[in-house]
Amino acid sequence: MAVDVVSSDHPRLTEILQKTPASQYFRDIDQLRRSHPAFIKVWRFPLTPNQKVLSVALEDMESRPDGLFIFADYQNDGEHRIAACSLPHVSLELKADRMEFLDPETPSKISAIKQKAAKLSHNLSTRFS
What is the pTM of this model? Predict the structure, then answer.
């Protein structure tokens, strides 16, 4: 099974990737690379389901991308996409039919970060409008 870690350095591309399920992503990746060669980086890992860990250390990246996603090419229905840019480190377990965070607190951490970002964005837009 292919697992792609995808970095986006363009807000519009990030928006597209946030809405794209893995099955569509794997169909469209070649076109995305041709359309956005300066703004997308892909690292592919051939892994097997039930492999215990895929660990991505985001703090080691040279610069923080606009968006960072992990797509897994599972054959069953589902999003099989994780947005990971808001955390310094992500560890996943690749189950037979889905990816799961190893740290059970990770989804709530992501949610809290998104809420803070939305509140800050709202406060800034209110202040400058």
Answer: 0.73
Task: Summarize pLDDT for 61-85 with one digit per residue, the tens.
Answer: 556 677 888 899 998 988 999 887 6
Mapping DSSP onto H, E and C, the string for the chain reads CEEEEEEECCHHHHHHHHHCCHHHHHHHHHHHHHHCCCCEEEEEEECCCCCCCEEEEHHHCCCCCCEEEEEECCCCCCCCEEECCCCCEEEEEECCCCEEECCCCHHHHHHHHHHHHHHHHHHHHHHCC
* Owning domain of residue 97: 2-103
Give the total number of structural domains in the chain: 1
Domain presence at residue 80: yes
In a domain, 119, yes or no: no
